[in-house]
Amino acid sequence: MANRLAQETSPYLQQHADNPVDWYPWNEEALALARREDKPILLSIGYSACHWCHVMAHESFEDPAVAAVMNRLFVNIKVDREERPDLDQIYQLAHQMLTQRAGGWPLTMFLTPDGAPFFGGTYFPKQPRYGLPGFPDLLERVAEAYRSRRSDIEEQNRGLLAVLARTGPERGGAAQPLSAAPIGEAIDLLAEHFDRRFGGFGGAPKFPHAPDLELLLRQSDGRARDMALLTLRRMAQGGIYDQLGGGFCRYSVDAYWAIPHFEKMLYDNGPLLRLYAEAWRLTGDPLFRRVAEETAAWVMREMQAPEGGYYSSLDADSEGEEGKYYVWTPQELRGLLTSDEYAVVERHYGLDRPANFEGRHWHLHVAKAPEEVAALLERPPEQCQALLAAARAKLLAARERRVRPGRDEKVLTSWNALMIAGMAHAARVLDRPDWLGSARRALEFVRATLWRDGRLLATYKDGRAHLNAYLDDYAFLLNALLAMMEAQFRGEDLEFARRLAQVLLEQFEDPQEGGFFFTSHDHERLIHRAKPGHDNATPSGNGVAAFALQRLGHLLGETAYLDAAERVLELFRGQFERAPGGSSSLLSALGEHLVPVRIVVLRGPDAQVSEWQRRLAAVAGPDTLTLALEGAPSGLPGVLDKPVPARVNAWVCSGVKCLAPLDDFACLERVCKGADLD
Questions:
Q1: Is 190 part of any domain?
Q2: For helices 64-73 and 135-148, angle between their N-to-C axes, nearest 10 degrees
Q3: Residue 192 has pLDDT above 60, yes or no
Q4: Please, are residues 272 and 248 in contact by the beta-carbon 8 Å criterion?
Q5: Full domain range(s) for residue 153
Q6: Which helix H or strand E contains 317, and what residues bound it?
Q7: 373 domain-assigned
Q8: Does the predicted TM-score (pTM) go above 0.85?
Q9: Of 146, 414, 433, 554, whose Cβ has the fewest other Cβ atoms within 10 Å?
Q10: Strand (E) positions, 505-591?
């Protein structure tokens, strides 16, 4: 019979609904049972696209004998880290403190009935291997320790909770004004770890680190931009990028971007779509445009629900094997392609080299550029490009007939916001109204379904929206609304942004120390209340909140937003001044604190305004916020409430400095490329 998880919205929890384990979701019923029976809690945290989560489930949670031990000794709680990032943050940090090792998923933590962790790990095999104990034996030992060493556990818990309480940022005393020095130091640090051949930072495994690439592309010096552009180019040529269907996997298991961990996450692809559009704007390289086009097409084809919201992820596994959906053999390809097509594909994707996946399959990555292939085959480059395009279409069609990886179809507010922002920016830069339409549908879904009674909810699936939203939901959505307004101004978006900002200040800001808690003031009380500042798989909520509040503050002339953003930077300055690594979102906000965003307001006849907006998208960098006001919107704030002239005019301001209206595009272009506002 199905257990309690069958009624949950999380596909990950539903994957465990038929386990013989007596699972509970995280709720008061489970916690009260643990307190009443004085049983320790076995907390298992994972997500639906996680390969090792599946492995542990198949080995242990589906085994009646293992489940019997779990049910006898523990209250068992299963958590989707994507729906409950608040819990995941706390117990990942606790795991790191208890084990002195990095965490991951599945996360397996043992808690006292009041939620304090006393032992943990990640994946545990059913039988002893990899230097790990067998899971059933571990369960017996942990339960015995809970019974016989209660005083030791209580003492350890007191110390752990005290350390957790000290993990937040601490505002220092009087200091010098904020400066750009940490930005330069962060770039130097990235340069020190930069892989000059393959791009990226450090060795295997290698992650995209979108906030770092964003910070680098925001700089005017060539060294910073070159690091970002090389990384984006090598990723696009590697196997981390889906060479047939578009979109990026979560990370590469090697240093060459060749073999990925095959799960595809919405939260990676939204920021990466923005970055590839920006890279194309900077360079005009057709590779960057193609990757943006293919990624946007994948999102709209496979990740957008009919109702408008974006789904969360695609699994790494299909038919029980990681990567099976994506890999090939030369024999398969020969059976699908003409001899001329195969000749190009073989050399382009490295099929003439040894198998690169598990010794018997080939995962496609660019081994030779089309121009090199053309030279080797002594064919015109245009012919090779045409053959390659035809072959890719055939292979994608053949792959579509395979058993697909599982898709997590819950709609998360924060991840949707990241994709809305990426899609809107790319739509504006590459002049793609269809992408903007996709972003608009997702935004309207979030507003209609996940915004209730003046507050956001975190997740939606199967007609049910629930869970109190987190800092990331508000900060990312506020930033997405700014991107949407740049692509297509609507007064209701501005009003929605204002309301989100007010909830941020009222429900998340620390009134004493500044900065934003991850959970709202009326959230469920947990053993720790985090105030995160580091970028992880997603950008720092505090960094994005500061960045977006600054832009909205300048747009509305609202000093409360500017002051809240400054309090964030002052609170976290100790973090990014001492060790700027992992603080790129905060540093992007710092850059615009020191040099306020350049705001360009276009008014005039609609056709002329639209044309200037299109032309400006190709030349204005990320330090410019452009709003093209068509028609006669009412209720505009002072910065936007400009007269409608007979010919298009641009009003340009940065902070408190403004230029007289400009009616010459060449002059506006010079200003947007850095000419002094004086």
A1: yes
A2: 10
A3: yes
A4: yes
A5: 4-165
A6: strand 317-318
A7: yes
A8: yes
A9: 433
A10: none
